Amino acid sequence: MIVMKFGGSSLESASAIEQAASVVKEHLDRRPIVVVSAMGKTTDRLLDAAHAAARGSSYSARQQVETLRRMHFTETRGVLGQRAEPFLRDHIAPMFRELHALLAEVCEGRQFTPQIQDEVLSYGERLSSLIVAEAFRHLGMHAAQVDARKVIVTEEQFTNATPLYWDTYARLRRSVGLLARDRVVVMGGFIGATSGGATTTLGRGGSDLTASLVGAGISADEIQIWTDVDGMLSCDPRVLAGGFRLREISYPEAQEMARCGAKVLHPDSVAPALRQRIPIVVRNSRRPEVEGTRIVSRVQTAPGIVKCLTSKAGLAVVHLRVKNQGMLSSITDGLADLFAREHIAVELIQAHEHGISFAVRNWPGLAGLLRKVDESVNITVEEDRAAIWLVGAGIGQAALARAHGVLQTTDVRLMSQGSSSLSLGFAIREADLQAAMEALHREFFAAPDRDVFAVPDIAAARALQPAFQASQLRPSGQPQAAPAH
Ligand code: ADP
Ligand code: ASP
Ligand code: MG
């Protein structure tokens, strides 16, 4: 059995759903279990609607849900044709009525809690899984929808719930594993429920984690993540075009890329697959002929190769100076507890002679949180910062020296090396992010290793296309129409 997960952009329209169906059909002999995200940008829209309702803006909340209803109806009609009307009437319209009613209660003063937020967001994947299963049946597959809330059991941290692995695996084996023997199971990603039955979500991008949980629960042969890029690339195409596709990387490298901002994979999705050595393959649903990137235990590449540049914007760099060095460890421990309690990830950290500096996501509550730090500590905060990481197993001094050379004229605020030698991170001004990424990519990917990256053959490309410019292969700040290689 395999797991095939399709992200929102792979299901955003009738034609995208048909394309996903044709990809699934190609794999029927491997008995796929299909995990789906909400269609297109549905989760963002649901969140907007929920926030509008919480502000008491009932008109805006209704409008947003109405836009979503129209989109789901139109795309369902696009796939199902005549068969759509009874299905929409019996299964989809009632869910939109429920959603309107829930948001109306919030508008009228019901407290908007994280639990209500999860309830609202769950509609995205509940709708998409019903629609995709019906579309698969219409397109000739024997498909069954499973409500993910019956099998993914989580703790109670609404909006970011931790799965209860063993309960989840037991349920998956009992239900999904058995059903998948003779039909294509379709279930929503991202959502689960507490053992008491309250709806939870696994955090944004959490459908990848669902795919990995399902894979581990049923001991799948492979977990396929079908998305809108050719695989894991040497840089985020939305930041810098022209990156190279990685052929194969290790689980720790993939996890580090994800942790350091490569949104293509949810950082928590690697661990369940890794424990059972199930390969994860990241592939492009619109270009299924491309092999994608395989994430496996062992890769045959030498250590020290920079495989990816990642970045995060919207950070603040905080410098703490202590008068008495002896106090430093108790202050940093206190701060670590504080951040852990508030679920704030420290992105980069560097110790120096008089204290420490670190980078965290900037948000309006940060100043208030820092006021809880011992008064004797001198604190300065720099806003509008970004972080860049070089990621690859075993990268160390040589990469650091090259990066320093490239960033000579950039205002580097702090540098941080992960303890496992998987990454090197730099905090810079957000305004310098684009230029720094371009310069670093030029430095580290001028002659990419063909065993590690899928590099197009320039000579062959020239022969095919006389006007071909080698510069087209170089990264540039301008988004390119051409897909990654
Ligand atoms: P999905 O809806 O399929 O889950 P996401 O938007 O969550 O898709 O993830 C895919 C996106 O991840 C890509 O469109 C790309 O912009 C982004 N991304 C960030 N870093 C990388 C990277 N190194 N390689 C590939 N994609 C990346
Ligand atoms: N639909 C959810 C989100 O947008 C989960 C996912 O797509 O992975 O965050
Ligand atoms: Mg995603």
What coarse outline follows from CA principal-axis ratios? globular
What structural category arises from helix and sheet content? alpha/beta
Helical stretch count? 14
Quaternary state reads single chain
* Rg, nearest Å: 24 Å
Helical percentage: 25-40%
The main pleated sheet reads as:
8 strands, mixed
Distance between the termini: 29 Å
Instruction: Tally the beta strands.
Output: 19
> What strand line-up does the widest sheet have?
3-5-2-1-8-11-12-10
Mean pLDDT: 92
Strand content: 15-25%
Which parts are unreliable, with pLDDT below 50 for 5 consecutive residues or more? 464-485
Bound molecules: adenosine-5'-diphosphate, aspartic acid, magnesium ion
Summarize the structure.
This protein has 485 residues and is an alpha/beta fold.
Account of the protein in words:
This protein has 485 residues and is of the alpha/beta class. 38% of the residues lie in helices and 21% in strands. The protein is built from 14 helices and 19 strands. It has helices at residues 14-25, 42-54, 58-80, 84-107, 114-138, 165-179, 207-217, 251-259, 270-275, 328-341, 366-370, 397-406, 433-444, 458-464; strands at 2-6, 32-36, 143-146, 153-154, 184-188, 191-194, 199-201, 222-227, 245-246, 248-250, 280-284, 293-296, 308-321, 346-352, 355-361, 378-391, 414-417, 423-429, 453-454. The strands form 4 sheets. Strands 3-5-2-1-8-11-12-10 form an 8-stranded mixed beta sheet, with helices on both faces. A 6-stranded antiparallel beta sheet has the order 14-15-13-16-18-17. A 3-stranded mixed beta sheet has the order 4-6-7. The protein is globular, with a radius of gyration of 24 Å. The model is unreliable at 464-485 (pLDDT under 50). Magnesium ion (MG) is lined by residues 7, 205, 208.
